[in-house]
Prior knowledge:
Blueprint: E1 4-8, H1 15-24, E2 28-33, E3 43-46, E4 64-67, H2 81-103, E5 107-111, H3 136-150, E6 156-162, E7 164-166, H4 173-183, E8 198-200, H5 201-213, E9 221-224, H6 232-242, H7 254-271, H8 279-286, H9 294-300, H10 308-318
Parallel strand pairs: 1-2, 1-4, 2-3, 4-5, 5-6, 6-9, 7-8
The protein binds NADP nicotinamide-adenine-dinucleotide phosphate.
NADP nicotinamide-adenine-dinucleotide phosphate binds at residues 8-9, 11-15, 32-35, 47-50, 68-70, 72, 88, 92, 111, 113, 162, 164-165, 171.
Amino acid sequence: MTNIALVTGASGFIGPSLCRHLKAAGWQVRAIMRRPVPGPWDASILIDLGREPVPLETLADVDCVFHLAGKAHALAQGPGADEEYRLANCRSTLDLLAASRAQGVRGFVYFSSVKAIGEGGGPGDDPGSEPAALSPYGRSKRAAEDAVLTSGAVPHPVVLRPSLVYGPNPKGYLELLIRAVRAGWFPPLPDLGNARSMVHRDDLVAATLRCAIDPRARGQTYVVTDGTPYSTRQVYEFILTSLGRRVPGWTLPPGLLRLAARGGDVLGRMRGSRFVFDSDVLDKLIGSAVYDGSQICRELGFRPHRGLGESMAEIVASTRPAP
Ligand SMILES: NC(=O)c1ccc[n+]([C@@H]2O[C@H](COP(=O)([O-])OP(=O)(O)OC[C@H]3O[C@@H](n4cnc5c(N)ncnc54)[C@H](OP(=O)(O)O)[C@@H]3O)[C@@H](O)[C@H]2O)c1
């Protein structure tokens, strides 16, 4: 018998790849989106989740919900951000859980984020506890995770916490970095020893499919990484090499970077909106965010197959120059 999947956020960065893999594995795919977009799904349903109700028939005969839709992490988060993220990331989850319960859906795989457990430092304040989320985005994801795992709405709930996801047509951090390096205005950063966990989209999708069907994943929360944290300097060199350019023999002194960032802070304050490069951006760029993704490997036998270095040529080729 064919399994039926309901995928939210199907039209985003990860969604189409997940839908393609589900189809290849024999699933029938229903996709929820806000506006009609063609893609690898059998049917699409237009719903603004969190703002519009989820019609019960949307969940009829569904075996597993893959809930990806949500408000993505943004660098600048102003006042009111907590409420905005709560509406976008928690309300939709609660609505989908209620509809899943009513229709007897078996599985619910929730796409949370590593940001639900802070910025990738050590353990939590209390022994054995997980670190708290530090951003409105992270807090909304953590609250939605709790709902998925404790509501009892479905017999097979799973939470995934992907680290930064890379793959062709990237968005956010990687897209900006590639555009800046290609345009020639990204400074040759020194290797400051920072490290950031990441995962290839294909590996994340493989982990997702496994979680949907493996009984051992029931009630679990898994961080997903490719197992190799990368420094910003490494990422910079991967991009240069993929562009066929030489890695410069000199690096910008860290002091100068700090000075430029402080200049950006001042400019931002003067004009009342953040400048493109400021201390916050610099911290994100040279900060570390390392997460332990070993649990899913140990418990489900998941093995990431891709790495950022060998994937970068394809990613760079897919990224258009800045308009
Ligand atoms: N990409 C990463 O590095 C990463 C890392 C960790 C966790 N995650 C999580 O993984 C999930 C998928 O990530 P992604 O990178 O594919 O995100 P994305 O590219 O931003 O896509 C999000 C999708 O959700 C849809 N959506 C947003 N709000 C919606 C609403 N109210 N109703 C219906 N659809 C809505 C968007 O539709 P529109 O086109 O209409 O906006 C879009 O298709 C997200 O929950 C994200 O937080 C991603």
